Queue: 4 jobs
Job 1
Amino acid sequence: MNKHNKILFPLSGLDRSVRQYLLITFNYWNFTITDGALRMLVVLHFHQLGYTPLEVAALFLFYEFFGVVTNLTGGWLGARLGLNRTMNIGLGMQIVALGMLTAPASLLSVPWVMAAQALSGIAKDLNKMSAKSSIKMLVKDGGQGKLYQWIAVLTGSKNALKGLGFFVGGLLLALVGFQFAMVIMALVLAAVLTLSLGMLDQDIGKAKAKAKFTEIFSKSGPINILSAARMFLFGARDIWFVIALPIYLGSTFGWSSEQVGGFLALWVIGYGFVQGIAPKITGQNSDGRSAMIWAAGLAVITAVVAYGVQSGWNPQFVIVAGLLLFGAVFAINSSLHSYLIVAYAREDGVSMDVGFYYMANAMGRLIGTVLSGWLFQMSGLVFCLWVSAGFVAAAALISVKLPQQKASTEQ
């Protein structure tokens, strides 16, 4: 290839696996920014319209419910169609969901918004399952340390950009309003989809044997245990983070939508950064015991924050500082889980194992989202925190049963 072409196509000189990894990551990054922005826009916009916390949570009910369904069936689709196709289908569906929300405010009824959120939930989990599963196919056998690093970077960067999406959502709401924000994000994703259709490898992750629908439920003990721990872990986060915290910061501390979006953005960016460096903190030979220890530590942190707020120890400082510490330790837990599931998964039909695991992840988010609105409306933020601590403790207890040896040995 001549010098001119190398300038026009800078990725062409890279190793194929690295080139595909970068393309998948770019695709995932752009989707994630719009996903984070959309969540913040919906929470803040509809709270400003006078919706109660439980009503705002209800808007996300289908988003999380269809995430459960998508992860359960999306892995099967990925194994049959190829992960490139499921990733691009996810992008297309997100564009449609954003288009639905460009309707005038008078037409944005609760059922309409819930339907758009349902499409967005399907799109997000198709995209995430496809991205995480694809990396398994790009790392050669025996490269478990590299696998952990690549998964950590993808997961960490995704969450950092989701944090950026929170900020973008709050900023767009202030600058251009709800409808124009949807138009801008839909146009960006349309450009990304065009690039993805042209450059992503065909049939990546497509199973050699024809995947049966009855195989969507995992028969692997370690994957089932890890999935149960994941459900409680993410339920614990969303119980206080998704609905309760943004509304609490605005209603109790008087923060503006830009301040709420900006703070949560910085939190998630920092959370993503810690995820990206998790292998340096936990060691590349981490196993199920590591997941149990870090979950136990997170349970203690959450309980201390709950007690501090309940006791009136300068609630604003305790919540802000506690949230930062919670985020750092939660990020390590999440990164460990994301690595272990890809390491435990079968190579042929990897998307089915990963899809089952992320089904449990989505179930945790669904439970956490509903509880976040309901518990906050009934009993306030402190009770949300105590229930969150109980969920993390459950994740730690379940993780005791995970294999306590290197994932590479497990393979």
Note: The domain at 14-410 is CATH 1.20.1250.20 (Growth Hormone; Chain: A;).
Job 2
Amino acid sequence: MGLREPHDGTGGESGRHALIMDNATRSYLVITAGYWAFTLTDGAIRMLVVLYFHLLGYSPLEVAMLFLFYEFFGIVTNLVGGWLGTRLGLNVTMHIGMALQVFALMMLTVPESWLSVAYVMAAQALSGIAKDLNKMSAKASVKTLVKQGGESKLFKWVAILTGSKNALKGAGFFLGAFLLDLAGFRAALMILAGGLFLVLIATWVLLRENLGQSKVKHKFSQVFSNVAAINWLSAARFFLFGARDVWFVVALPVFLYDRLDWSFTETGSFLALWVIGYGFVQASAPKLIRGHQPGGRTALILAIALATIPAGIALAMGQGWNPATVVTIGLMIFGVAFAINSAVHSYLILAYAHHDKVSMSVGFYYMANAGGRLTGTVLSGLGYQLFGLAGCLWISALFVAIAAILSLPLPAVASETQRS
């Protein structure tokens, strides 16, 4: 039976509202599916590059430097991408990100003699641009699909999108390590590129509405936020994600492979399980803190609790405890606490942002996120080379403590009318 608008004014308005909500849910599901597919390739390419180039004899610092442009251009992309999203529409920037990722994957399928450090860094630069265009577009789109005043629904939708993304990124770590063992480096990249290209076509057809395109043509200078809460939250985000990547990007996989003598698949499986578990906890964050709307104080308390965990792991390793047990159990606990911290941050940035400038606010925030990842990535290779995994964990604890201090000025979440 087709939809028919009743003659009664009240019924007609109700029917139109139901149709709008149906379209919003449909768009959310398409965006989420595209984000999932992209995230699989992002996790897989990260694991492929770390393990393959370590196998070729690259030092931990050299492996970390391969991701330097990946993270650096993530900073630039988030800054410019939010502004582009207001002008072109978030669905357009999301699909540009997918296309760039397909190209970046294919760049690495060249003969081994072509894979110089500069060449791989260039391919990773494109991948970094692609990842942050896709992430900024997907997360900012959620704000445009939720009506003003729907803070509870916003927290739920953001938590599900972010948590499921991280679970799929974990699956991508496993997929990358598995394909490296099964098919080799180049064949694995071709499989990933082909799959993502098919998803790009499907989401382009299904996502027709132009999301997030602002009626007001904002100047580029407006990408720098003048909202104090967004600036403080962005600074805290910088150190929060630096604290994760300082041990996660290079130090941990090299430690598991070299010190614990794990295989590629075992290393990839552990990292996959960590990120999948982290993603499920993140998606469940609204239930875990049910009855309490997150605000600045929530972020502060969670950061203080998180800082004790890497410090505790480092102390236990220093006391000579079994490293395999300490690292695997300790980092699982860290993952749970970090996931809740990250979910609250992801909600707060959208809650603090104005609807008309959401992509610019999110872009600015994820620029800080990318800066933290860049710093953490470099310190992961350098710190491990100089101080081992325990040294990286001490740096992690320090970074989380700084994030806690930066969370002190964060306010409670205001209503949309209070922010306008």
Note: The chain has a mean pLDDT of 79.
Job 3
Amino acid sequence: MHTLLTPDRPLMWTIIANLHAGGFIIPSRWKQHQAQLKRSKEKARLNPRRVNAGPSQIAQAMDHGKDALGKWGLIPTNGPGHAGKITGALISSVQGERVASSGDDPLYLIITAGGDGTSREVLTALYAASPWSRSHSVVLRLPMGTGNDGADAWDLDKALDLLIYPSKIEMTRALRLTTATGKGPFYAFNILSLGLDAFVTHMTNKMKRFFPGNFYKLWVDMAALFYDRLYHVGPMEIRGSDEAGNTLTILQDRILLLAVGVSGRRTYGAHKWILPDDRNVCAVKQMPLVRKLRLKGLFTTGEHRDKPESILFNAHRVAFQGIYPILAQMDGETVLLEPKDFPGCIERTEAVIPVLKGIMKLHPAS
């Protein structure tokens, strides 16, 4: 391995791959990714070869001694929830190695090769791990799904550059959704939202089970026409507050969607700029059908922020109360909230998730 990541300490890597994700099974994308992998391999050869790096013991153990995938540190997932179970097993293994180790503690690199759902499972398991385990781990999220809004780069070669060129480990926050009935908590690591866009995500996921590809735009168009017939867009109260608990914003209106980001300047739905500036909350009021059809395209570019139906603001904690069932989505996974689950709350957690960030650009843009 030729990575420059923490060259002064041992490195153990695990690749958790969803081989059914769009980046693998859509022929045009897989062809593009193969070319990007080849380019990254050539760039990495310019770095010194490491002798203190290797695949994790859990990756080799899960290969059942076949040494076909384990020697590459690769563990394929076999269905929903498996990525989280793999991460849990890895964390347990790390704790065991800590007890047995008499030398320097390794850094455990977890590479997710899948979509936002795969990375969400891994990050959720890591969030629940001990502080020691998190402090000795780091995650790199490769864009191998259909949307990849939560990946560490939109292009595979730029994500892999974080291993080839100097980078640092940075702690980032999560979003936590809690309810009055104790349903949850649910976690997201990019955007957590309620309403129309959660319905779009829900229907897109249903379609992906049968046909590979990105159906998000199709269901945006369908939702503009039919969402109001399937879900009541009723009055909601939304309260945004800061970390000290001071109320910053109060909304009382019929809300079509509510999106909360770990930070501002974030996308969802395959790079739709729902949070186009530094503000991390966007609420969109209900509007007539003709108006929806006119404005829906603006969410791709972020131009919706200038429209009167859009209310953007900053908040650490967003409490919401409604009277009708509503879908919530967490980085591409959905759950139905019932009236008994209200009031609900979306809040940013402490910064505990270790991810890779580039230090500087040392090479020309490709």
Note: The domain at 11-172+352-358 is CATH 3.40.50.10330 (Rossmann fold).
Job 4
Amino acid sequence: MKLDRRTFVKSAFAAGVFPCFAGCASGALAKKWAPRAFGKGDKVRLACVGIGQQAWNDIKAFEKTGLCEVTALCDTDLEGKQCAAALKKYPKAPRFTDFRKMLDAMEGKIDAVAVMTPDFSHFPALMDAMRRGLPVFTEKPLAHTFEECELLMQAAAKYGVPTQMGNQGHSGENYYQFKHYVETGVIDVSKLTRLAAHMNNSRRWHKWNGKVSAFPTGETMPKGIDWDTWLGTATYHEYSKDYVQGEWRSWYDFGNGALGDWGAHTMDTMHRFFELGLPTDIKIKDVKGWNPFVFPMQDTLVFTFPAKGRRPKIDLEWYEGVKNLPKLPKGHKSQGWNPDIPTAKGSTAKDASKLVPGKFFCLSDGTAWQGGSHSSPISRCGDGGKVPSYPKPGSNHYANFLLAVMGREETRSPFSVTAPLSEVFCLGCIAQRLNRGFKFDPVAKRVVGDAEADALLKGSKGTPRKGWEEFYRV
């Protein structure tokens, strides 16, 4: 009887043949990455997991670079109207509803994989691709749980593949400013006294206003949805329209809330260039609309980071909720909506608040800096927008990844950088879910004195689902 590769590996895993590895590229099947020889005019053969909504924005951005050709399309709802544009654009690209089948079928025919699915479903597709020696791009946040972030960081190091998370501003002006200003002393990290990030606009998801008393009742699925693959590693739930088309972000079992949605676009440069790492304490206050199923409508999180080098111990404040406005530093002025922020059809988020998503930080010499989201540049508060010079951006975030696949650049937002950042989000989500703060040991990477919070580092009860355990070994 002929066994395909996946059946062989899963059988071997169950039998304990591969004690140190798992997944379709376990043990001897795993591959270390090496770029193929790209000749003049050659393009990266890109496979896309997720092709609707934000994924379609990403696909168009990849295409615009002129550096890739979309070689395969995968989505669990190929008959959904959100997939129509991609299917029309690439009629000859093979189509799949299961990323595992796509990676099996396209072996040797693709150079990289872009995973642009809901928060909770990034992990298995990324692990599967990296074990095959394939570079990966994924949307933010990196993964749904702290443990998944850890494993992805370890896998990236093990297989040596280029990795990139989709916090697009990490290739824009904000990135180059922060890097240059910290390295040259324009921003003196020894004088930092306050860090804050905020998202005070209404959300284009989360329609319940905190009034949820149970999970949705199961419904008849629309034709064509591969629900088992959509669920992936997540705790089992029967199909409901209240989980799909962006609403997954509202539920603890599937999303990372507003923090996972916007934190990667507002906190990323502060976290990286102030070398924050992992916090020792997470506090939560000003909570409204809390319940045990979906994220609250409003809350303030405070992450305490230990001193490092010249930087003192510091708190990073996170504010979400339309009326939960932070106390702004003197001279702070409202900024415009950054043009590289994708817009959602029907969204009125831009009109909800004059305080657009962004960040600010204060220093002991009395100065303060402010910036918006994504690639928005920063400026001194009350300084009329004047800033010291800094290097101008190079390749954009999508081109940067593709050039890395070709062996010509290094990615600016690799998993070694974005895993710790996303772990901060995961810790904040645990505090939101439990409606309480906790202590954290950043060396042991365990919650201190709170068994329930510590268990949530691995995700909801029932995660991973039976049959998906193979992805949780490096």
Note: The CA atoms of residues 284 and 301 lie 5 Å apart.
